[in-house]
Design a protein that fits this description.
Layout (H helix, E strand, L loop, with lengths): L2 H8 L6 H8 L2 E6 L4 E3 L7 E7 L2 E6 L5 E7 L4 E2 L2 H6 L6 E4 L3 E7 H10 L1 H27 L2 H11 L3 H4 L2 H8 L3 H6 L4
Antiparallel strand pairs: 1-8, 2-7, 3-6, 3-8, 4-5, 4-7
Length: 188
């Protein structure tokens, strides 16, 4: 199984070869093409995804066609519609590939089995959940207290390579500004 997952896990917990073999047996590797959906609004959600390579976006489209990007996910990031996954409801947004993408799929059932069998993995997932929660809090706070220029600079400072991988229209959709407004913003 992929060493990227092992390195990702070992940033939080140490694991042996046998433990990693057990952990990796709960994942399934899949490849998706650019523009292919992992989740579509209204679908049942029973999986989460670890990105080995490629780039994804989670988003909603308004009736007028305006897109709002909730999250990007690149290498070593997790993505799903967690509200739908946890509460076993239908997806409230779409997740699709911006680039050809290879992911590891972890079903809710396999995650539960993994966490029940391994205190280490339960700890790992708790830490990842807390990190994700903090990141989302920071994003919401940024929308409340920062102007578009500050949000643009903050995104660039955190993820400079993202700007080379996605069109400006997607950056605008993530920042909550029009393409025209984005063109007026400058990086310092």
């Amino acid at each position: 199984m992929n060493t990227a997952l092992r390195q990702h896990i070992e940033q939080i917990i140490p694991i042996s070869d046998d433990e990693f073999e057990f952990i990796s047996s709960h994942f399934q590797q899949k490849k998706y093409k650019k523009h292919q959906f992992l989740i579509q609004e209204g679908d049942p959600v029973n999986q989460e995804f670890f990105v080995l390579n490629g780039l994804l976006k989670a988003y909603v489209n308004q009736d007028d066609g305006k897109m709002h990007i909730i999250q990007f996910a690149m290498e070593n990031w997790w993505i799903s519609d967690y509200q739908a996954l946890i509460y076993q409801t239908k997806a409230s947004y779409d997740i699709d590939c911006i680039e050809d993408t290879t992911i590891l799929v972890l079903s809710a059932e396999n995650k539960e089995k993994l966490c029940s069998a391994s205190h280490k993995m339960e700890h790992f997932f708790r830490q990842k959940t807390l990190s994700g929660y903090v990141a989302m809090q920071k994003r919401v706070l940024s929308f409340l207290v920062n102007d578009a220029q500050a949000r643009y600079q903050q995104l660039f400072d955190l993820y400079p390579t993202l700007f080379q991988r996605i069109p400006k229209s997607m950056i605008a959709a993530y920042l909550g500004v029009s393409r025209e407004t984005l063109s007026r913003l400058k990086l310092s």
